[in-house]
Amino acid sequence: MNKLFTLTGLLFFSGSLAMAQNTQNNPGSNHGNKFEQLGTILPTPNEQRTASGAPGVKYWQQRADYNIKCELDEKNLLLTGSETITYTNNSPDPLTYIWLQLDENEHSTDRNANYQDATKMPAIGTTKNLDQLSVAGNNGYGINITKLTDAAGKNLPYTVNKTMMRVDLPVALRSGQKFIFNIDWNYKISDRMSVGGRGGYEFFPTDGNYLFTMTQWYPRLCVYSDFQGWQNHQFTGRGEFALTFGDFKVQMTVPADHLVGSTGECINYSAVLNPTQLSRYNAAKTAAAPVEIQTLAEAKLAETKKSTAKKTWVFNANNVRDFAWTSSRKFIWDAMPQKIQANNNTVMCMSFYGKEAYNLYSKFSTRAVAHTIKTYSDFTIPYPYPVAQSIEAANGMEYPMICFNYGRTDTDGTYSESTKNGMLGVIIHEVGHNFFPMIVNSDERQWTWMDEGLNSFVEYLTEELWDNKFPSKKGPAYTIVDYMKLPKDELEPIMTNSENIARFGPNAYSKPATGLNILRETIMGRELFDYAFKEYSRRWAFKHPEPADLFRTMEDASGEDLDWFWRGWFYGTDPCDISLDSVKFAKADFPKDLPEAKSKMVKIDKPAVNAFEDISKIRNREDKKINFYVDKTPAAQDFYYKYDRGMVTVDTTIATKTEAVAALEAVPSAEQDKYGNKFLYELSFSNKGGLVMPIIVEFTYKDGTKEIDRIPAQIWRHNELKTAKFYVKNKEVASILVDPLRETADIDTSNNTWGGKAKESKFKVYKNKVGGAVRGQSVGKNPMQAAGK
């Protein structure tokens, strides 16, 4: 053991000296603070949000319950509604006003919050382009408030500011109190396919019918929170929604031949479905495959007849943050159940789609919904709601229990593999949003990545479990490389407000998803990551998390210090570019005679004596457990203490076999047999990209076998630009490859390889005795310090 330790000590000594020299050659290279704690970058923990990342003992959030009645006028493309809102103030603060969102004002030319970007005169364009650039006056879109009263019917004063409305309260709403008020409103429904946006209608000229997607359709409460007070970011069409949980009862009056899909459960199917449809729906509850409740033939027939009668559908949804619905006579409707074992919940998975999507959606949509609900439940929390559904509406957008996706076939009913995979990716992504942010309810208006990025990451896991060869575009590290290669002036940190991001998709979706996948596969490992990620989901289900809550929980639940990763990947724009600069190769040499003095020994300056007696020195001398003398024989643990007091002598100019040096004898044959056939390598790396990451090294030996060494990112702690790693191998290495599986998003793989015969040098190995630790030490350097002791 002593002989082996001595050899190891010599190797470590040599490595430490090289590190010290690297730092000296690169002044300032160790001051980038890449491994410093985030500290005050994160908000100070408090009784609402703890340092562990969990909600605190005084965490609170507001509540808003809705009772809504509305009517869809298909002929005039108008939606009219009235709602009663019960707002509960769970905060410790008295409120003198409340804020509501009027997101439909996005489409208004005089009430929108679309702060204008720079525009230029196009060289070539269409009349539609000119219409968009030259529109003036009121285009008639936006929500009209026709009445606003308290529970007693008394008018309430209000102020509309772009896409938000402030309601002034007659008396302050104190902590624990409720305020009930009524709003009547209407708005002209926009053509979603030409105007854009998430909600509106799509018109099908071939059959003369509409497909309505009713989203952001009712005045709804803004979030009042412990971390920002009232959420006051206007809706510009990009940053999505910050919303308050509550219960909904919604009644929609629509043409009698329409089918309605909605957030929540329908409580009057017996009144709105015909006996055949109701029988099929009941059969679907226990089916092993999707059951068509409205068939393709029935949907085509419905398209030819436009009823003038009306039906009212009634839905309830509990503990949701939003409510959306769809209505059309074009729909085929199918359903099947999915059991969630963890909470014994049976979810009705459903799809609504037109004939244009039949050959795709009938085969895949509802099955993909079921697969998504089950898989996300495994990685986060058990799905708590009774329904999950996918609506084909030529777009992609998410709401509680319902989402709108694309996926139409060609006119002849055929489709390409890319169209199929694109549809599956969108369905998985949008259904997955039920978890982020519909349950883990982050502020999308401020931090798009907290829902889109986290959701894209679990989408990737879900796609992989759907099809191991699925062509995922978000999650694998190599897919973000092109983005990371961009010039710095085209990049922003992930921690950027939604409205200010230039490259929205890579920044808010792909890069955070990739970062989480790197954490899971390369840095933390699946077991630690999965446990911590589930803990974050559990802690913040039905609550309002902020970025610090995620960062802190991932560390708290895993026992991993990840501040360096959050700092680099989320707060920075540096890419990963690790270069394998050189490979040194040696074979161990075992000389029988001592080396000549001048070539193998160096002068050691006598260390200066520090006259200051600090408390640690005093207590060390008083501690009976610490021995400074062992029968007047030098004790290795305190060489300099004894050397300075003449208890041991060293000839600093010439090496001889004196008692002080105790003679370095030749290594016996056992050690020669053990190390004589080893191959010694030193790999030198540089961090050219700036982002510190683990170094993954693949050795290919001359016999064709391979071996991988995974070096944690902490190897860069003492020098963020240069580092090295020493290896003792049983076989000769033919080639070396850094990051063989492209796990770190390295932007330049041309500097990741080494191959060929290195120039061999000799590594001389000696048996060490007392005093031998000074061999090879630089002048004036304390060997215990240099060795990192």
UniProtKB/TrEMBL annotation:
InterPro entries: Peptidase_M1_aminopeptidases, Peptidase_M1_dom, Peptidase_M4/M1_CTD_sf
GO molecular function: metalloaminopeptidase activity; peptide binding; zinc ion binding
Biological processes annotated in GO: peptide catabolic process
GO cellular component, one term: extracellular space
CDD domains reported in the protein's UniProt record: M1_APN_like
Domain Peptidase M1 membrane alanine aminopeptidase: 371-569
Range of residues in the leader sequence: 1-20
Protein name: M1 family peptidase
Species of the source: Pedobacter kyonggii
